[in-house]
Write a structure and sequence with these properties.
It is a multi-pass membrane protein. With about 290 residues, this protein is mostly helical. The radius of gyration is 28 Å and the shape is flat.
Length: about 290
C-alpha cells in the first residue's frame, strides 16, 4: 500500500478589506488603526493648533499696524525667544525661577503632608489648628507679598517663603481629605494584624491617600509658579517674572511674549512630571485592579 501524503496549506488571514490574504502570524498595523490614531492625535491637538494659527496670522491679516506692535505674530515671538536662548538670558532667568520655585515647593510639600497627617489623625489637634489654618487659607498669597518683603527683605528668602505659603494649603487640605477618606475597614484590619501607628501610616493610610494628595501637589505646583512670577515682577533682578516686566517696560514686546510662553511651557512641564510621579506612586492600584479582572 502506498500512503498518500497530503500537504496542508498554511491558513491565510485576510486583511481588513477582505481582498488580500496575509500569511498566518504576519501581524501588521491595519490602515484603519493608523487612521484612528491619526484622527485622535489631530483632534486632541486641534485646539492648540488653531490657537497658534490665529496667533500667527491674526496680527498680520486681521489687525492694523498699531495692534500688531502690541500683539506680534508667533514667528516674531519665537525669533525673540531664540535670541534670548542664544545669548543665555533665557537660561539665566529660567534657572533663577526654577531654583526659587523648587525650594519653596519642596518645603511646602514636606511640611504640609506632615502636618496634614497629624491634623487628620488627631481630632484634638484638628479642632485647635483649624481656625488658624482657615484664616491663612482664605488670605491671598499675593496680598501678603508686601509683608514678606518688609520682614524678609527683597532677597531670595522672601520669594521662597511666598512660594512655600502659596503651595502649602492645597497640599495640606488634600492630605487631610485623603487620610479621612481611607476605608475604615482597612484600618481595622491593619489594627487586628498588630500594626503600629508608623506601619499603619506607611502601609495603609499613605498608599490609600496618594491620589488625593497628588491632586493637591499638582495644584500647589501651579500656584507656586504663578505666585513666584508675580513676586519676581515686584522686586527681583533675575527670573522669568523680571524678564517679562523688564521687557514690557523696555518696549521689547516680542521678548515679553517669549517670557510668557516660557512660563506656560514650564507650567505644562511641571504638571506632566507630577502626573508621572503620581502614576509611579499609584502603581499598586493598577496591579490590584489587574489581578481582580
Amino acid at each position: 500500500m502506498t500512503a498518500t501524503l497530503v500537504r496542508e496549506r498554511p491558513t491565510n488571514v485576510t486583511d481588513a478589506a477582505g481582498t488580500r490574504p496575509l500569511p498566518a502570524g504576519d501581524v501588521r498595523p491595519t490602515s484603519a488603526a493608523l487612521l484612528t490614531f491619526t484622527r485622535r492625535a489631530l483632534w486632541k491637538s486641534g485646539a492648540i493648533g488653531l490657537f497658534l494659527l490665529l496667533w500667527e496670522f491674526g496680527p498680520i491679516y486681521l489687525a492694523d499696524e498699531t495692534t500688531r506692535v502690541f500683539m506680534p505674530p508667533l514667528h516674531e515671538v519665537l525669533a525673540a525667544g531664540a535670541s534670548l536662548l542664544a545669548n543665555g538670558q533665557l537660561q539665566e532667568h529660567l534657572a533663577a525661577s526654577l531654583t526659587r520655585s523648587i525650594t519653596g515647593f519642596t518645603v511646602a510639600v514636606a511640611s504640609a503632608i506632615s502636618l496634614g497627617l497629624l491634623v487628620a489623625w488627631y481630632r484634638a489637634l484638628d479642632s485647635f489648628l483649624t481656625p488658624l489654618l482657615e484664616l491663612f487659607r482664605n488670605t491671598a498669597a499675593l496680598a501678603l507679598l508686601p509683608v514678606f518683603i518688609l520682614l524678609l527683605g527683597i532677597g531670595e528668602l522672601s520669594k521662597i517663603s511666598i512660594v512655600a505659603f502659596a503651595a502649602f494649603f492645597p497640599v495640606l487640605l488634600n492630605t487631610i481629605a485623603g487620610v479621612r477618606t481611607v476605608d475604615p475597614l482597612l484600618i481595622r484590619a491593619a489594627r487586628s494584624l498588630g500594626l503600629s501607628n508608623f506601619r499603619l501610616f506607611q502601609k495603609v493610610i499613605l498608599p490609600s491617600a496618594v491620589p488625593t494628595i497628588f491632586t493637591g501637589i499638582r495644584m500647589a505646583g501651579t500656584s507656586s509658579i504663578l505666585v513666584l512670577i508675580a513676586a519676581e515682577m515686584v522686586g527681583a533682578k533675575a527670573g522669568l517674572g523680571y524678564l517679562i516686566v523688564n521687557a514690557q517696560s523696555s518696549f521689547l514686546i516680542p521678548d515679553m511674549y517669549a517670557g510668557i510662553l516660557t512660563v506656560s511651557l514650564l507650567g505644562l512641564t511641571v504638571n506632566f512630571l507630577l502626573v508621572g510621579l503620581e502614576q509611579h506612586f499609584s502603581r499598586w492600584r493598577t496591579a490590584v485592579g489587574a489581578q481582580s479582572l
